[in-house]
Amino acid sequence: MIRFLPVLFLSLAAASAAPKPAPATPAPAPPAPAAATPAPPPATALPATALPADASAPPPAGMPKSTFSQCHVEGPYVAMTFDDGPHGANTPRLLEMLRQRKIHATFFLVGQCVAEFPDIVKKIVADGHEIANHSWSHPQLSTMSEATVRDQLQKTHDAIIAACGVTPTIMRPPYGAFTARQRAWAHGEWGYKCILWDVDPLDWKVRNSEHVKTEILKQTVPGSIILSHDIHKTTVDAMPETLDALLAKGFKFVTVSELIAMDKPVAPKPKATPAPKTDASETAKAEPAATPVPAAKPKP
Ligand code: NI
Q1: Is residue 83 among the annotated active site residues?
Q2: What are the distances in angstroms from CA 221 to CA 150, 176, 210, 217, 240?
Q3: C-alpha to C-alpha distances, 99 to 26, 82, 91, 149, 236, nearest whole angstrom
């Protein structure tokens, strides 16, 4: 409960600081509606808008930026990310492709797959890649209770440490679905940065290697965080040509944490500032709930 109080204060401060429209005429106040004094919500029911919903928006003063969908870097650096594994067959195949090209990527691991394939997790780490928390069973965390979300993240956190001895410092919510309050909470609890993406080849949906390659090449820019899924054979099949084409275009691959370390604040534009993104745009980018969850997939 205590940990939400600063958020509440920020919210209240923001509300009280909001400019109030000056009354055009000193007309008598209209009769107060019956529901003029609703009961304040409990602290645990803060709206998701208590913190900026926009992943790229600067955090409130005094709060570190903890959510990234892309980075602003000097240089052609990008982060390739692979979600939902490890997979018994496709992940080792991918690791070989990455090793041949001396590319380091970031793997957002599902806890129950970590428990099933701890040796592959060790191999991922031994090859120099970053590993990260992608929940235990890939549910939509944004609609779940704090206790359930805690269980999903803590079990995975512990399973990763048990498998490879590395403590993850970043997480990605399945479907990108995580409220601003949850992001602040996970950052406070585990020190997690919340990693979204700006390049989405929709490889979970279009199981076609050529499509995966084409979309990644079309969307990737310096600072991009590229979403893909190493549980799908078509995605891994697309990687040799995709990675070679990105290398040929001059892109350099780093892990997500390395990319974040290079992140530079963007100077605010005085005019023509694009409208801030909302949680709705993020949801639109997220994988649909129809994505097979690891719990339901057949074991390799
Ligand atoms: Ni996922």
Answers
A1: yes
A2: 34, 20, 19, 9, 19
A3: 73, 15, 12, 34, 14
Is 112 a domain residue? yes
| 164, 131 contact by CB (below 8 A) | yes
Question: CATH number, domain at 107?
Answer: 3.20.20.370
Distance between CA atoms of 138 and 265, rounded to whole angstroms?
A: 32
Q: What is the per-residue pLDDT across 191-209, written as a single tens digit (0 to 9) for each?
A: 999 999 999 999 999 999 9
Q: What is the pLDDT of residues 97-145, one digit of tens each?
A: 999 999 999 999 999 999 999 999 999 999 999 999 999 999 999 999 9
The CA distance from 279 to 287, in Å, is 14
- Measured in Å, residue 47 CA sits from the centre of ligand 1 at 25
Question: Could you read off the pLDDT of 42-53 as tens digits, one per residue?
Answer: 333 333 333 333
Which residues are CB-contacts of 22 (< 8 A; sequence separation ≥ 6)? none
129: nearest Cα among 153, 155, 162, 102: 102
How many domains are there within the chain? 1
Q: Is the pLDDT of residue 61 over 90?
A: no
The residue to which tokens 């990644």 are assigned:
216
Whether residue 209 is contained in a domain is answered as: yes
Residues around ligand 1, an ion, CB closer than 5 A: 83-84, 174
